Protein 1
Amino acid sequence: MAGEVDFNYFLARKYAVLQQQADSGSEQARATTTNAATAQMTGAAAANVDNTRAKLMPAESAAQIALQRAQTTLTGNQAQTVIPLANANIANIGANTALTGTQNKVLTRNELTPRSQLFGGVAMGTTPGMGFRFSEGGLPAETQPLRRRGENGASYMDRTGWGL
């Protein structure tokens, strides 16, 4: 029996392969059915979303229009305040400039005016060495010399004796 072929083995092998193919076809059919059901559910869900959006669209459009109107009104109101604010800032700058000029004039006048004129004709003073100028006899000086042109505060104080 050495030359005999066992056809049962080959037939069993053939039927096993055919069974695998049949199982594979069944599995593909189940997958196709599942895919079709999934596609149907996805389509239904997309249709529901579209229907919901369609229902909400008029309200959303109305809200968007209201928002744009409110933004336009806000921009208009802000634009109406630009000119008054600019005018107020300009007036404030002018007032600050005038104040600075006045302060400068006061400081200049105080530096150039004798102390006797600042205090009603009587010089102020208590004791020598306290920052007040006295005459040689120990009496307060009634007038002070004016500041010379180009003279700074330190040299004026040295010259007049106010820097004791």
Protein 2
Amino acid sequence: MAVLDLIATARDDTFAGRVAMMLATLSIGVTTEDVGTTNHANRLSFAQKVIKAQVNNKAIAAMVIASNPTIQATIIAAPTTLGSTVPDGDMEYVLTTLYNALANAYAA
């Protein structure tokens, strides 16, 4: 079942680890962004939580998967790979586009 394959991938330590590494890279960049950047306060607060390992990377992995049909299709096409065939660039793109939503959710 496709949804179960997506869940298994989000819960996979390696896939979640990839998400964590990419999220850490983005977060380090946020710590030096211009303070005039839209939503900077929430972005910085979230970045600090990521850096201190206070976020649930498997939950964020689920958001990455749930928000992108291309990533879903890649996982469904090869479910036993648990997302290892998802290109890093696709994941980085999704995390970049989700960053503000994640920052706002963690600020609430």
Protein 3
Amino acid sequence: MAQLFATAVVALCGLFFLLTTWSSAAAPAEFADKLGLAIASPGGVNEIRAQYAGFFAAAALLCAAALAGWVSRSTALAVAAVIFGGLIGGRLVSLALDGGMAGYGPTIRALYAIDALGFALATAALLVRPSG
């Protein structure tokens, strides 16, 4: 059962990473706008594609490699836990510094739940998975 849970979490994380890759690469200006960011020059488009599409493509490929058996699922889960943990950690610090969510758009608000869930699932899958 733990193995099936780990596989499902790796697949779910991989799909989220792939969706982020696709949406940021295909329409960087729209992606940035949903995050409350403005692109001021072609360099901004480059950064959206590098920081979001490139980074999340690498994470999606790692999840695919884990599902194919080329790397361990534990490796993919640890990377997912680090990614989502870093994101939710940064969001919580920002929430404290900003004194709440006033001014946060719907995408940012949704990302609090997505990042917390991703971190919780990846961590839980790591903890219940047999080592090795």
Protein 4
Amino acid sequence: MNKRDITKFRKAYKPWKADCVSEGLKLAVHFDEKDIVKKLGARWEPDPSGKGGYWWMPEKNLKNDAHPNGSLVVDVLNDEQMVIGPVGEVDLKHHTMRSITNYEPIIYKLVNPHESGNTLGTFYVYEELQIAKWVTTLTEKYLVLEEARVTWDELMEAGFRQISKENS
């Protein structure tokens, strides 16, 4: 994100209050702020193209003390309006299913009428956590929303269509 995009992002900022069930949280950080997040334990993830990248805070650092007043790292990131959302793999080994089942998903049922047997699949989208679960008879996969959108687009290109949407 460039400085203009970060300014726009921060105008509509909503504090991150959910559990982090992924490797960490992606951050909106401009060049002048990099030293702040580095001191808190953030890491730089370079773009594979060699141009740009992004800062992210590992999940294990979010609950660390950041200030003598009792503020945690996640509190400072929210105060600075930096949290974009989850990044990396959804980590169900480290987080119990309880972390996810405390949140209500929106359920999207999909069908591929072009395949024999009308292949069915279901997306469970946990908006507050910004993750999704894709389930078929053969697979169950958790994804951060950014990756879930890519998967959704690929499924639509492959012929899947949404047949229902419901709140659980």
